[in-house]
Amino acid sequence: MKTEAIEKNSDQSQSKKIITYGILLLLVFVSAIMVVFQVFEYRQDYRQLSTYMRERDDLNAEWGRLLIEQQTFGATAQIGTRAVTQLRMYSPPIAQTVVISLPQTPEQKK
To answer: Subcellular localization, per the record (predicted)?
Structure first.
C-alpha cells in the first residue's frame, strides 16, 4: 500500500513536471515569436524614420535654394531702387536711345 501511494505521488510529481516543462517550453516559444515580431516592427519603424530623414534633408536643401533665390531677387530690386534714388539714374526715353550695331564679318553671315 505504501508503494502504491509512493508510486501515485511519483506519477503525479512526474506529470506535474511534464506539464510545468511543457508550459515553460510554450512560454519560451511565445517569447521567441514576440522577439521576432518586435525586431520586424523596429526595422519597419527605422526604415520609415530613414525615409523621413531623407525627405527632411531634401526639404532643407530646397529651403536653402529658395532663400538664396529670394535674396537674389531682393538684391536686384534693391539695386534698382538705389540706382534711381541715390544715383538719379533712369531709363532714357526712346528718342534718346541710340542703337549701335557692328558690321558683320563674312564668318558671322554664315
So the answer is: Cell inner membrane; Cell membrane
The pTM of this model reads 0.51
95 occurs within a structural domain:
no
List the domain range (segments joined by +) for residue 76: 2-90
Integer-rounded Cα Rg, in Å, for the chain is 43
* pLDDT band at residue 37 using 50, 70 and 90 as cut-offs: very high
| Contact (Cβ atoms closer than 8 angstroms) between residue 79 and residue 87 | no
Instruction: With respect to residue 43, please indicate whether it lies within any of the assigned structural domains.
Output: yes
Per residue in 82-92, pLDDT tens?
888 888 888 88
Q: How far is CA 99 from CA 5, 94, 95, 96, 102, in A?
A: 126, 10, 11, 10, 10
Looking at the domain assignment, is residue 16 inside a domain?
yes
Phi, psi values for residue 53, rounded to 5°: -65, -40
